[in-house]
Queue: 4 jobs
Job 1
Amino acid sequence: MRLFLISMLAILFAPVVSIAQPLADRLPDDAQIYIAWNGTIAPGAGYDQSHLKAVLDASQLPQFFHDSIPRLFQQVAAQNPRAARMLNQVYGILTAMAEHPTAIYFGGLGGAGAGGPPLPRLAIFCDGGADAAKIERQIRILLNNAPGAPLNLKLVDTTVVLSDFVIPETIAKPLAQNPEFQAAMGPLLKDPSAAMYVNAPALIGTIDALIAQAAPPETQQMWPQIRDALGVAGLKTISATAGFDGKNWSVQAFVNAPTPRTGLLAWGDVPPLTGDLIKLIPASSTIAAAGTCDLNALFTQIDQAIAQFSPDHGSQFHQILSQVNQTVGFDIQKDFLGALGTQWAYFVDPTIAGEGPLGFVVVNRLRNADQFQTSLSQLENMVNVMVAQQFHNQRPKVTLEFRQATIAGTNIHFLATPLITPSWAIKDGTLYIGLYPQVVEGALDRPADDHSIKDNPAYQATMQALQGPSQLSSFSFVDLPKTMPQSYQSCLMLTRMYFGIGDLFDMQSPPLVLPPLSKLLAETEPAGSVSWTDDAGYHLKAIEPFPGASVIGSAQGLSTGGIGESALMASILLPSLNHARETANRVKCASNLRQIGQAILLYGNDTKGSYPPDLGTLVKTEDITAEVFVCPDTNTKPPANMSPDEAANWVNNNSDYIYVGAGLTQATAGQLTVVCYEKDGDHGGDGMNILFGDGHIEFLKLDRAHKVISDSAGQR
């Protein structure tokens, strides 16, 4: 869900991003991490943003940020004016930075703090243009409310700079002229809306220094081994961009890790996808993806890493593995993981099981189909025996087991469980996996010479737009015009759930945060991504018609299978659960007041019926603690280990209950005499508990409670 909300934020801020030069020409060239965006400025020439503009015109999401959030701040102001002012200031600053070119800079470690480890060199640069002075003033007001913050603020021409170290007025060597930065950004979008850059050797050096200065000795000893095993010494830079590539919204990334690669980096050195694998994906698929995952090689790397870090642990790992192999009756790595193929594909074909992820099919071209089938069958038998033993004495009898059925000449294995029936089968050396036998059978029934995804015109157009090389490491494809109608209702439900929570607090979010389906479909085209490997490193490129389109167009995966239903139930039950919690807090307060009433009664027995002069007296004279004088709906918390006098003083100054019984006696306090009551806001303004002279407690609405308190005071 966070990905969805981030995408929706991108829809708000990205429509009108300028393709202007980022702030790399105003930052020091020693940046280890650089993140920048261009803000909502007039679009650059030659960039077709018609899709995004039409979606925004049909959406009320900007209205949410411009109207609803400030309204929420008004609600906060009613309870805490100071907090509301700070929220408004922070929101104003963030909004300004979202609308102007802004960059975040990390330059490693600087000087040490007072008696502590070295401090990070952080800075934010914002080109505010005509608004620069206003932005600088807003930040300065915020800093004045947080005295002692070790931050420097200055305005250089139109650039606002906020940092925790002193930055010179003139940058002699800007990041934009750094050859490594230029090489990292070169293969990506030339005029991005947002960019990220990581100088890996410098960042790893910072980690080395931090561990050497601040980490425990055992960590210092192990870190070089961990670093070498990961192979990160061969990593040069990581870079990514997002922006318009023609009429598409494009995300591109480049991991600069030249050959030879070792450790974790070497795991990405995979052969390109084969035509045999892609042929297994039907042409009618609306969602498809393929890539490499060598589980056998990964297992070997884990084994080697354990032995490298600790030979003793490596020996223990092998002993455990040997015991597991004896239990299952085969070699887990050789006969199971080694029999799996290295390339996998995934697809959803409406002609096989309809739309939605419950109809997905996973395929794998096995290395050794016979060995894999034998091993998996043995594993199933072992699980069946163990489960049968576990439920042997269960009454009524419970059965959970793997079963087999021959359908159309193929043996299909399945786990008989409620809701879903995970299933698998092997045909012509290929493993098919699905959530139901019907799905697996539908995939098996496809003719061998049937058209593949490569014959799909939408797929062809998407791959042509991506302009990847002929040899790919992975790809993904989503036919959004066909999938979006199936996912739209789930998106409506999810957005309404989250924005509806704000409406419960009178935020009044607009009704059309998500545009109508017809408006989305009019601007929707297929989306996809490709990745590939070469001697320079790893490359990724993804396109979609507008930011967030792929999330909206495939969100049925969030709902089908339980997540969406859970979200719906949560949105329905949330007010009830909140009410139940509030009711419990009211009961707790009533219990507190009842204990206070009993303590007053005991005090009167020792003082000829007199009531105590204040609540603190009860803490010193009766068996009652300071915690009893705290409402669970507040943040009040008494200090620990107070003396009786300190506790009494704390209660008199901090109690969440108002005592009006001073001067009363057991003879003068009747059933309508108010002795003690809660503060107005303890339960959100709904009402309050009141302790009366005869010891009973009532919860009354505020208007009624105020009248009862006033009448009681007038009768004394």
Job 2
Amino acid sequence: MRRYSNKPIATLASELRAGLLRLRRRFVDAAEALIQIIDPQQDYPYDFVVYRVTGYRPTTPEAGQELLRGRSLVGDLQSLILDVCDSFDLRPEDYAAQKTYDSAALARHLGVSGKTIQRWRRQGLVARRMALPDGTRRLAFLESSVEWFVQQRGRHIGRAVRFTKMTPAERTDLLRRARRMASFTRCTLNQVARRLAARTGRAAETIRYTIRRFDLEHPDQAIFPSMSAPLDERQKEDVYRSFLNGMSVSQLARRHRRTRGSIYRILNEVRARQLLGQPIRYVYNPQFELPSADELILSPEPPPAAASPAAKPSRRAADDLPPYLRALYDTPLLDGPAERALFARFNYLKHKADQLRKQIDLDHVRTGDLKRIESLLLQANMVKNHIIRANLRLVVSIAKKHVGGAQNLFELISDGNVSLMRAVEKFDFSRGNRFSTYASWAIMRNFARSVPRERYRLDRFATGQTDALDIAASLQYYDPNEANLPELRESIDVVLARLTPLERTVLIDHYGLDDQGQTKTLDQLGRHLGVSKERVRQIELRALKKLRKLLHPQQADLLG
């Protein structure tokens, strides 16, 4: 299916492709007949279009009242014709009463170039896709379609056709006038072509083609020599910076004496190089490869947390809080499903952008591909900002507990916000943990570097259950003064998950970190595991050493 400007026409094309085989040629012919009566400046209701193409009215009256702009409707009907033709074998003998041309034959018949035929197609010349006897499928033009188009645009057609009738003397005179114009007025190729077209009555494209061909065949006598020499990387960067600073494409074309098309190609090339040099980091998930990934992840939009029954209610801000902190309470907190949906969307959008970026060909950069990649990255950034705003209170709750050193509260919050942003980039939503737990450890590790070390001299995990719970309690999400056992348990589990099953069992049973809180001696653990008491002690020491490395070298003293 091709791209359509009007979604209803795309839907109609899908329905016609699946319609009765014997009716599809009639749909194609009716669509062309409709093109021939459309005024590009008028709007047309969708039910009118459906009736003219199929002979039936839409089943839903509401859909039929949608207005479609004439200019875009012509292009969509041309796409519809080709899509329907692709769904069955339409052959030249189906139109035995008239002659058919392929693109090359029509160009020879009218005495124009293949590019001119392509331009006429964009202007309304209808083409069909036909199956040929050799098994190939090609674009074909009916004689009646060509006659109608020539009749509608006779003046423009005549100017293009006169290209082949240019005599050597006329060509020499044209090149002489172009050289004089380029030398004394410093016009671009497009400007010279337009001025000479107005004076000679020839098509601007014909003149432009003649000059460019002469320059390529005679580089030592080129009228626009700068256009033959490619710009170096520094010059291309200068063009791009000038464009970003507000200089128009026309101004850049005049400055560098190049066509507008070449300037657009330079801008796209630089944009593509920048995209290729920009790292796109995301957490991959196998569901990104599913055929229905777009439907599962991108639609519908994740519901706001406030609308979810499982969402935690947003607490009311205290009246004495500064304006910035009060504003944080305006953003609803995220519940588990909404959080996972947002992280899935965030990483999937970046995955799609990365996959599209891998298809970029610097020799043939397409503007549509660049816009698509940039749009995906912009959407991902919007999702990231949503997640960050919903978790800013987490940073404040942790920062409030470490005020009193060289940094004030807002300096700590600023520092913690940076850690929060990095945590969003690295969080793996598929593991089932809450982001608050992961982000809390990231923020704590950052504070361990930025806040004086003596603020953290706590003998964590070394003195038993009480100190271990104190550490986890410092990671409490929304209110450090309220008990939150599920979050506390989750904080401990995140740390212990980094250990081997044997190491995890020793620490949990020795310090009573399970739900029952029952502690066991090293001797009891040894009998339970079938090893010696000394071996259990070695396993415990190894586990504590791992935890020291996990927190950070600067935090090693926290574990005793």
Job 3
Amino acid sequence: MRNLMNISTIAILILTLPIAALADLSGTKTLTANTALSLDSGTTSSSGGDLLWNGTTLAPQGNASAYNFGTAVPFSSLTQTVVQAASALFSKSAISSLAVNNVLAVKTNGGNYSAVQVTAVSGGSITLQFTTFGASSAPAGPTITQVINNYGLIPAGFSNSGIAQGALFIIKGSGLADPNAQAVLQDSSKGLPTTLNGASVKVTVGGTTTSPVFYYAIAAQLALVLPSNTPTGNAQVTVTYNNQTSAPFSFQVVQSAVGLDSYYGAGSGLGVATNSASGVLYNYANSIPPGTQVTLWGSGLGADPTRDTTFSTANIANIKSLAHVYVGGVDAVIGYQGPSGYPGLNQVNITIPTNAQTGCNVSLIGVTTSGAPTNSLTLPIGTGACSDTQFGNIGSTLSTLSGKTDIYSGTTILSLETSPASSGSGTQVTNVALGTFQHISYNGLTYGTAGKSVSLGGCIVSQSLGSSSATSTSTGLDAGTITVTGPAGSATLTSFPGIAGTYLAQLASGFIPTSGGTFTFQNGSGGKDVGPFNAQIVFPTPLLTWTNQTAAATVSRSAGLPITWNGGSSGTFVYIGGSSSGTVNGQSVSGSFTCFAPQSAFQFTVPSYILASLPAGTGSVIVGNYTNYQSFSATGLDVGAAIGFVAYDIDAAYN
């Protein structure tokens, strides 16, 4: 069974990113007779451009227009606001009798505003100083920085990266298309174009070259469909814009590499799932009942030549690239996987297992017939608003927070950690109390895009090139004087040097006793930014012990990683995490996984398809017993949480 979407719905599913703010372009150029100047790029040519100097006059070209302020107006006074305000006076008439210090206002062919001053006139030449507001720096031609699946966003170098034949993919870079173009989605019912906003793309594998078609094109990003007849193997892609062609950029064309759509377009966090019968989109406030058939959206199942360029319902058939779709670790029944009707857009219909766990962030990951995992997502499973009581997550709260671009958060943490000693031999045990109070800005994204949570019983993966780039920035909040009190006494947290909003206390050995106990964080009358709060953490009796540490020192990514433990308290949960970094084809890559299991199970196996998403190399494995999250509130905070944990951290080799 399959269902189709209308054109307005597909617009939501095609990832678009805002155009980055552009800097002003300033420069000085000397023009000889019959030379044209482009104020958008700072380049000269024999024709075109914005202003043509014929030896005696400057004439606007194309759609450009200008106004002559004469010599009475200082060049420094021509701000963007002043130039734009004079636009009613602009014309296409040629300007003559130009002298030194003559000032012009120009609207360029690219739609930008420019201030121009004559600094020299000699014989048949003229020298112009100019500032074009909102234009990029002088282009050296298109530059490609990344080629990735439009939905999965998995960087090159991982076993599950690559662009599948017939897939919807994006090219990131600079100078790729008209700098004033908007990300307008093209209508595939009329056929997708091979040229858009001045840009065209060629992909070459061996001796075969194909031309992807466009969904949209902006200067920083192109969204395209790779023709199904593109051969598999190492590909070279080039972008041509403004008669300049980029340097070739390498990527792998594969038969299948599935990326699933995420709710906030980040390739991770909450996944996009719609009811297969009604089309209703599920979210934290409207979770999916077990047994429901849902449709997942994405791209990369494989070649689909019928729909390479145009919407079509002809020859609809399964493309059986996915062998499994796991929901909370349970293998779901796949009812249909194949074309949606739209170029490059696939759909996968599954039935949520009746024995699937419930929660706000139940893990979702597919595995292809070749064993390659999809990107890692989560789904809200349950009835009505979702709930993860162990983590203090409630669907209504998550729905409110997830759309925010700024969050004011506070967290208090009490930890007892055993880790490799800094000297390289033996172990060290640390008791730490930590408080972190931050105003977090998600750099144009939202709180939901940063979601790295997973419900009990599942695992999620994060993948990145080299060290992870920051997806958010934070500013510390003043929470006043914070103390923590437990069975062995009290301690005061002090501000961590150089990190505003972070409070730390290195606790004496035994502050967290093996018998556990109750601990309370308080901040008295509060601070400048955060009001008074009282947060309580209860450690179990006895504390948890990781019983098979030695076996985890070498991780076989093609096999599951079994973890066993003793101790802890029923009702709490166990965190199992790991990370590795390595070099693939000269590219540094790193990955990490996070799993949560109920303490009462006393064992958990990290699935092989989770480990397969990480690179071979060196890293670590950590196992910890977390107390259930306790929420607290304070003026100045959107969310507050208190958590305690006992953790064991070891070095590990990933093979």
Job 4
Amino acid sequence: MIYKCLTRLFVLVVMLEFSQTSCSQAKSQGSEVIYHVFQRSFYDSNGDLQGDLNGLKEKLSYLQELGITSILLLPLYESPYYHNYFSSDFEKIDTEYGSMNDYLNLVKEIHKRGMKIYLDMETQYVTEDHVWWKDSYGNLNSKYSDYVLYDDSAHKKPSTIVFDLTELPGYDGTRRKITTVNLKSENVIEYNYRLFEFFTDPNHDGKFDDGADGFRIDHMMDNLDNKPQLKNLFSSFWAPLISRLKKRNPELKFVAEQADWASFGFDYLQRGGVDGVFAFRLMFAIRNMNKKEIVTMADSIFNFTPPGKQQIVFIANHDLDRFSSVIHQSAGKEKIGAALNLLIGGIPSIYYGQEIGMVGTTSWNKYGLTDANGIPQREAFEWYRSVSGKGMATWYKNTGPWWDSTNLKANDGISVEEQKTDPNSLWSFYRKLIALRKNNEAFFKGDYQTLPNDNDSVYCFVRYTDRKAAVVSVNLSSARQTTGVSIENMKASVKSGQWKNLLGHGTAKPAQGGIMISLPAYGIQVWEIL
């Protein structure tokens, strides 16, 4: 949700204290790496400046070359807003993205390449353009009379949405009233099943080659926006819906964006029926580059995530300032963020443009209460050195001050063209890390364990399976650091192994009770234990 950041930016994340030597039961599924893409800003196939489905299909080879295995899209359905949240018709593809056939062809091509596709869904709200609103407003005899949540018996007062809003202004002058859907309605429950089922198996042949592999549930809550009419949705709506859909396709995956970003999301995994949640608290810790926070959050989520469930590990998304902006484009911190994003555990998700260090930050009220505030974090993907050329999806060009202060700059080193052939670039580092992860099972399915040391700037952990183990050590500071790392709590077979350098230029030497590690400024070292 776009506006959740208005309050979440002020949430104080309260840290939980756990042991630094705990082990994880949470494991990744294969070597999956998700690419979270805002398709409107990715690649334009027909010259209208709108990123589209055919443009994404054209660039699948780019994603595969990077090492991506799965793609997560923002909503595709029809909406008056550029981000496509707050739908006017859940059953239509936004025509600026293309047609339903374009979507189906994209899905088939993704599957042909051995990749997966996940769709972002938010069916909790509709705009005044939606047939449910138009037909039921003031009409008690409407067949949609119980689809929309009304606050009066005459159905003249549609209920508010998040933050008690009744309408939202768009960057382009769009202004629509929006209301909450009645998720307790049996009709709505059945409609959601049929909607998700369609995107699971569009032609109903049971083969799923044209269907989504899973869904991201936006703004998921047990008690939606604290409305008394919409309590206990985990048991009455979400868990039954997900269970029913998995009977259709047992391989489907559901990931919740927990509405409370300070939550670990364990109740979503235990009661909500989802397979995964986003590791928000770990993300904030990594962005802070604070060792104590990172250790606490990693120990917490990897210890207590229920078996068979997942944490999606990320450092940026469409609702947040871009990672490179948060760390002030520090080259060393950019690479530390990449290493932790991809190697620490769970299933990693990379936000489009993160791999080339795209920037974008704004205060969430800079342009008033409007979705324009999110544009700086959702700008056109930078394919070219000149930030112009075939496929550049600058759909917001010349539309307001967000364009006048665009982050797109020529010859600034932030583009695929400038980085792809440079072995020392951020893009090349992401590609190297993804390959490292793919080729070492300790990283894509291993348990996690923090390796304690007494240096506040050096963070170390081990990932291990029954057969493989790997140690990662990062220096969070701008000065060389040396510290003794305890390996006393590592299992015996790992402790007795030899350390082989896989990445980086640090050193690791046996010392009493452990290993003495030395790392350069912002150094990252990866060892395989043989």
